[in-house]
Structures are given as C-alpha cells and as structure tokens.
Amino acid sequence: MTSTARQIPLPKKFLIGAVIATTAVLAGCGASSGDGGSGEHGGSDDHVHIDPYDPAHLDDVGTATTAMQVILSWQPAVDESKSDALRRARPWLGGDLAAIVDNDNGAATGIRPDREWAAWKESGDALTASCAKAESTPAAPEGMRTVVIDVSCRQTVLHAAGSSTNLAAQTWRTTITRTDDGWRLTDYRYQ
What we know:
The chain has 191 residues and is of the alpha+beta class. Helices cover 27% and strands 23% of the residues. Strand 2 and strand 3 form a beta hairpin. The termini are far apart. About 14% of the residues have low confidence.
C-alpha cells in the first residue's frame, strides 16, 4: 500500500520568520563566551544554593540588620509573645542572647510585651520590620572582633483587611561579635 503525501504550501511570511529565528539561534550558539575563544566555559553545574541571609556569609552590618528585622517581625495571631520572634532569629544570635534562646524551654524570655499586642492578635495583624545601619553608628577600629552598630528599624503593621500602617522608626544599639562561623548579634538595646 502506497500513500501519497500531499504537501501543503507554507505561507511566505512563515518561512521568512523561521529562517530569521533559526539564524538568531545559531548566532547565539556561536557567540563569544568571554573565554578568549578556547571553547571552555567557566561556569559550573553544581546547583549550589546561596542564601544571602546565611549568617556565615553576612558581614557585621548584614548580621545586625537581618537579626533585628527578624526580632522585630511579629505574628501576634500565632506567636505567644515577641519571644517567638527572638527564637526565629536564633541563627543570627550569639553569646548570652543565644544562651537565653537555647535555655528557654518554651518559657517567656523576659521580653516586655507590646501594649498593642492583644489588639493585633484579635484583628489578625502581623508586623514586619525593615532595618538599616543608622548614621549614629560609632566608628570601630579595623579588625575588631566586637563592634557596635546602631540600626534604624521601621515596623509596618500589615492589617488582615489588606491595608498597612507604618510605625515610627526606632534606633537600636546592637553589639555584633565575630565567631568562627561568622558575625552574631550578642546584645541589643532600644536607644
């Protein structure tokens, strides 16, 4: 049994588009990779995940701002207290702060409750914090293992209805200590 294939003529615009697309693909395949034409690629296919908030990769300022953002971000509808946020910040903590969290056993860590906590809990609000190094940060000599960094933080109340309210910015004086595993927040105080 023989079959006769009937050829359907393709529109001229389609053929021109296909030729242009093929040319573009082939031109991209032959593009220079910046390796001097050796044909060797400098990339890797290791698929390593780089976490920009990994405490081992943060500098002192990154540790101070990241830790304080976590400490000041609250979920009153699910958190028992602000202590839950301190426990979430554990990867960025060191010294006495880490010891407090590690020895907490679920009890309150002595963090003063916020007067609006009950209202936020009842309405299902959450708070998120955004922090940056403050200009009031004292200069530290090069090579110090412990530095003081002032951090300006602004909390935003995210209302369950979809609106938000910015709270006044606050400055916190943090103490950051270099460890074998990177910088860690060892103390913080409201200024």
